[in-house]
Structures are given as C-alpha cells and as structure tokens.
Automatic annotation (TrEMBL):
<dbReference type="InterPro" id="IPR013766">
    <property type="entry name" value="Thioredoxin_domain"/>
</dbReference>
<dbReference type="InterPro" id="IPR050553">
    <property type="entry name" value="Thioredoxin_ResA/DsbE_sf"/>
</dbReference>
<dbReference type="Pfam" id="PF08534">
    <property type="entry name" value="Redoxin"/>
</dbReference>
<keyword id="KW-1015">Disulfide bond</keyword>
<keyword id="KW-0676">Redox-active center</keyword>
<feature type="domain" description="Thioredoxin">
    <location>
        <begin position="63"/>
        <end position="213"/>
    </location>
</feature>
<dbReference type="InterPro" id="IPR013740">
    <property type="entry name" value="Redoxin"/>
</dbReference>
<feature type="region of interest" description="Disordered">
    <location>
        <begin position="29"/>
        <end position="73"/>
    </location>
</feature>
<keyword id="KW-0201">Cytochrome c-type biogenesis</keyword>
<keyword id="KW-0735">Signal-anchor</keyword>
<dbReference type="InterPro" id="IPR036249">
    <property type="entry name" value="Thioredoxin-like_sf"/>
</dbReference>
<protein>
    <submittedName>
        <fullName>TlpA family protein disulfide reductase</fullName>
    </submittedName>
</protein>
<dbReference type="InterPro" id="IPR017937">
    <property type="entry name" value="Thioredoxin_CS"/>
</dbReference>
<keyword id="KW-0812">Transmembrane</keyword>
Length: 213
C-alpha cells in the first residue's frame, strides 16, 4: 500500500469519526446531577410524584387550600399561567387565584437553605396581618415530594403552588435567585420584586409596607 493511499484512508477514518460524533451529539440529551434531566427538560413535577405517592407527604404537610379563583382576571403578567396546588394537586389559574387582594408571593425550593430560614418568618408574618394580606408560596423545583416534606419539617402551613417550570417567576420577571418575594397590589399590579432573604416577620412587614407606599 502506497503512502498516499494510507494517508487517504487515515483522512477518511477521521472524517467518519467526526460524522459519528456529531450525530451522537445531536441525539444526546444533556443530563443534570445524578442523571436528572438537563435544564432544557422542564417539568412541573417528577414522574415519581404520582397522586398516590404524594398522598402521604400531603397529609404530613397539611397545607391549607390554595386561593379560590375570583371573577377578576387578576395580574396581567400571570394570565394564562396554570400550576398545581400543592395541597391537593388541583389546577390553579394563578392570575385569578391572586386577584383582588394584596399578595406576598414567596418563591423557594426545598434545597435552598435561606428559604428554609425564611419560610417560618413568612408564616409568622401571615399570622400577624391576618386577612389583610395573603401570603402564598411557590415551590420552584420539580421534586414535589421533597417540597411537601420540607414544609412539614418546618411546620409551615401556607397556601403553596407547585411550579417546577418556574412559570410564575418567568412571567413576573423575577431574577433567577431564591428565595425571592413579589408583592402584588390588590389591583393586580406588581408593587415590588424583592430578590432577597428575610429572617423575621418584622423585616417582611417593613418591606411590604415600603413596597405598597
């Protein structure tokens, strides 16, 4: 075999390898930690979180029902956004559920340390303000079971929306940080987005008051 023939075969082999590698790359779905779907695969909750599997965690969390839908169309940014109520698995039209009331919307995830410190303060704040303000939390991870168990562990009983796709945060333009809090006026407008952690009900009360001025 001549030198030129050997070089030709070598070049063809390299080209073939590159074609195969390119095809595999196109067909590959990137994976996240521990083989979980990559960021382009966004789900409300895991396949494992069936109604049967969630029954026990829901009972342990013992969450109050999510706000009932109002006739008011609600915040324009959230119209058309539908997520699950963590307490029951029922579908929630978010804009209509939050309509006609001052709302403190708290966005968190079960693995977030500052969120775990802040959630009890949110519950304390809700006890203080009563019906004047509705505190609603949004769990932003597809592991719904873990979210429910974290709330049960913390003893926090607040209406909670399950939003593994972060549709609410995206609609409101919330930075990709947790915890984050959005204050909504009763007319549905966004008073303020607060991408920060709170450690006490007093801090929350002062921030909400300032946002609504």
């Amino acid at each position: 075999m001549s030198t030129s023939t050997r070089w030709t075969l070598a070049v063809l082999a390299v080209v073939a390898a590159l074609i195969v590698a390119f095809a595999l790359e196109l067909d590959d779905t990137p994976a996240g930690p521990a083989g979980s779907p990559g960021p382009q695969v966004s789900r409300t909750h895991r396949d494992a979180d069936t109604p049967e599997a969630l029954a026990g965690p829901r009972q342990r969390a013992d969450l109050p029902p999510c706000p009932a839908a109002a006739d008011n169309p609600g915040p324009k940014e959230l119209r058309g956004v539908v997520v699950e109520c963590a307490a029951t698995g029922a579908q929630v039209d978010v804009a209509r559920a939050l309509a006609g009331r001052t709302v403190v919307l708290n966005l968190w995830a079960y693995w977030c340390g500052p969120c775990a410190e802040e959630l009890p303060a949110m519950a304390d704040y809700q006890r203080r303000v009563g019906a004047d303000v509705a505190v609603v939390t949004v769990h932003q991870d597809e592991n719904e079971t873990a979210g429910l168990l974290r709330l049960a562990e913390l003893g926090v009983r607040l209406p909670t929306l399950q939003d593994g796709q972060r549709r609410i945060a995206a609609a409101l333009g919330v930075p990709n940080v947790m915890p984050a809090t959005v204050v909504l006026r009763a007319d549905g407008s966004v008073a303020k987005i607060l991408p920060q952690a709170f450690t006490s009900a007093d801090e929350i009360a002062a921030a909400v008051k300032n946002a609504l001025q």
